[in-house]
Every structure is written in C-alpha cells, then in structure tokens.
Design brief:
This protein is of the alpha+beta class. It is about 25% helix and about 30% strand. The two termini are about 35 Å apart.
C-alpha cells in the first residue's frame, strides 16, 4: 500500500474524529498535560479533550496488535452501586444474569428502555471483599458520552434505597495487546492471575487499584481504575516498559472495528434492540426464560422470529473507506440500509465497516452496493470479527 493511500486514510479518520462531539463544556482528562507533553494531538470527544494520535493512527494500531498500547479512557463513567438487592434491581433494566454473577466476575450487558431499545452498552462486575469502592456491591463502566444520562435513568428506575455513585475521582486506563501482561506484571505483581472477564483488587506504591482483564480491541489486555491523582505516575511507569506506548483515540476506533465491536451512538442507539445489533449473547438464558427485563416481549419475539434488520460486517472493495452515514442500496438505487461504522483496517489491509441491512441480506457472502457522496462502492457481508479475538480465557494459560 502506498504512503499516499495510508496518509489519505489517516487524514479522513482524523477529520471524522475531530467532529465526533459537540458538547458545550469541554472537560479535561487527569492526564491532559501528560498527553500533550508526549505529543498527543487533542480533539473533542464525548465532552472531553482526548488524544486522537501521537505518532499516527496506522503505526499506533499495528503497535498495539503486536506489543502493548496504553489508552486513557478516563472519560468513561465508573459507577458504584450500593444497597440491598442491587443485582435484582439492575435486572429490571439489564437482560443479563446479574444475580448469578460471582464475586470478581464481570459481564457485558445492555441498558434497555421499555421498548427494548439500547440506551447504552456497559460492563457490570460483582465486587468481592477487599475492593476499593467503599460499600458498593457492584461496579459498572458505561460510555462517556452517555454516563450522565445513564445515571439519571438509573436514579429514575431503580429503588430509592439503591445508592448510585458516579466516581469522577477515578481515572481509567486500558493496557491492550499481546504483551500487555508482560509489561503490567512488572508494575503490578500477580496481575497475571486474572483471566478474561475477571477482576480484582491490587495496589501500586500502597495505593489501591481495581484491575480487570478486559478491553475494547479484541486483544488480551487490562483496564485499570485508579485514583486520578496517581494516574500520571502510573502511566509513566507503564510507558517505561519497552512493550508499551501511549495510543490515541484513532487507533482505538480502528482496533475495535476490526474486532467487530460496536460503538454506542453509532452502531447502537435507542432505536436498536439487542437482536438487531447481533448481541444476543447478552441475553442470559435465565433472563430469557423469566422474560422480566425491559422490552422483553419485543426482544424475545425478534429472537424467535427474526428482526427486520440486522447489524453486519462489511468488506469493501477497493482502497477507499466508506464511512458512517453511507447508504446501502438495492439494484434500483433505493436505500435499504445504512453504514454505521467504517474505515481502513490496518491489520486487514483493506476498508471494512458495519451496517444495518434487511435480515434477509445478512448472510456472509451477500453482495451489496453502498453509496457515499454519490459514488457507488461494492461490498460483501463479512463475518465478524475481521481479526480473531485473542482473549486469555480460564484454562488457556
């Protein structure tokens, strides 16, 4: 691939990410100065100034796939929940088995409205003894752009005796890549005892940390919740490891796209159900049988009879990426679907995307036409992920 093509793809991605958010009051990450000192190009995203790149999206993406990348995701919402019956209360709005989630285990879930639409996607963890979040029994990580709306919704629908704490005093870092464990275990001994979707309490220089083995790249990795006032020292210690470099928002987006992971506000929204989004795995068996979560009637009907539309992966012919907002059209040019994410995939070496199309067209191998700025592009429905996940699961060590 020529340098010109790579440069053009990166410029288009930066232009897109530059316009991602229009929040009126821009906030700053605890590591704002740290990012700038390392050459981070800062752009507004989800109401925060965030580093979109340091060396370049392509280089940062490939470094993370081969080594370990450090992402600042402190814009995300970290929520502690305290009170009697928190798990049962959460099950009214989450379709996962929260009550059956063992201490130290975490689960991907979806915050649903009464129509079964997705208000957010999130991680929920049952906290074990010795965790650093006070009296909380459960910990959730929600999207940065929706965290205040999420908390307001939970305050409205959960019982009054459930206390919800948005922990703005905590920073959140993600260390991702096949060598993440090699780097982190030197800084936080014994962290390698964790496996995918488990979490635990650790410490660094006497300060409590909460670490999960999870992430948003498809690679092995960790997310580290820590007090904001030690985030700079901890990030510096991680980047002193030879495997680690700071990585920006641009590569985070291309990595998650290759991993087939949806982005809320783009691939997911309140008009989209879990079945439409191809997230049926988030509907736990016990909860399906009980049918007692928000929007259950609609969601279970779609599961049994099929949704009208479905999220699919796209392999796009040629070299030009097709971006969010492009239309999927039929042979007569009528719009039948929409592209929700798209970009150049450095590990694949070609443009890829996600779209919602009629369910009858969702089979991998189906040929589609896309139209962007008046130009037609050929695409093929592709199985996701585009790059295999490399999580370290229990029993695989």
């Amino acid at each position: 691939m020529s340098d010109a093509v790579i440069e053009q793809a990166q410029d288009a991605e930066l232009e897109r990410l530059d316009g991602e958010a229009d929040e009126p009051a821009i906030q700053h990450l605890p590591l704002d100065g740290w990012h700038r000192a390392r050459g981070g190009r800062m752009v507004p995203f989800a109401g925060y100034e965030m580093p979109v790149q340091y060396e370049g999206i392509m280089a940062e993406h490939l470094w993370t796939r081969e080594n370990a990348g450090l992402f600042d995701v402190s814009h995300m919402g970290q929520v502690g929940l305290t009170g009697d019956g928190v798990a049962q209360a959460l099950e009214a709005v989450l379709p996962g088995d929260v009550a059956g989630l063992a201490a130290g285990k975490m689960r991907y879930s979806l915050l649903l409205n009464n129509e079964g639409g997705i208000l957010d996607d999130l991680m929920v963890t049952t906290l074990p003894e010795g965790h650093p979040f006070g009296d909380a029994s459960h910990y959730m990580v929600v999207n940065g752009a929706t965290k205040y709306d999420d908390v307001a919704y939970l305050l409205d629908v959960l019982p009054e005796d459930v206390v919800i704490n948005l922990m703005d005093e905590q920073a959140l870092l993600a260390l991702q890549g096949p060598k993440a464990v090699d780097a982190l275990v030197r800084v936080v001994p014994s962290v390698d005892t964790l496996v995918f979707m488990t979490a635990g309490a650790f410490s660094w220089n006497g300060t409590p940390l909460w670490i999960s083995r999870s992430g948003y790249t498809g690679e092995d990795g960790f997310e580290i919740s820590l007090p904001a006032d030690i985030a700079e020292g901890f990030a510096t210690a991680l980047c002193a490891q030879p495997e680690v470099k700071p990585i920006g928002l641009g590569a985070r987006d291309s990595l998650r796209l290759e991993a087939g992971l949806p982005l809320y506000g783009h691939d997911l929204d309140p008009e989209t159900t879990p079945v439409m989004a191809d997230l049926g795995f988030a509907l736990s068996k016990r909860r399906r049988e009980a049918a007692d979560f928000a929007g259950a009637a609609r969601i279970l009907d779609e599961r049994a009879n099929g949704p009208a539309v479905k999220r699919v992966g796209l392999s796009v012919a040629g070299r030009q990426p097709v971006r969010e907002g492009a239309s999927v059209v039929d042979a007569d040019g009528a719009i039948i679907g929409r592209v929700t994410s798209g970009g150049f995939a450095p590990s694949v070496g070609a443009p890829i995307g996600m779209a919602y199309v009629p369910a009858v067209l969702a089979t991998p191998g189906t040929q589609l036409k896309l139209i962007q700025r008046g130009k037609l592009h050929d695409a093929t429905v592709a199985a996701m992920p585009f790059v295999p996940h490399r999580y370290i699961r229990a029993g695989a060590k």
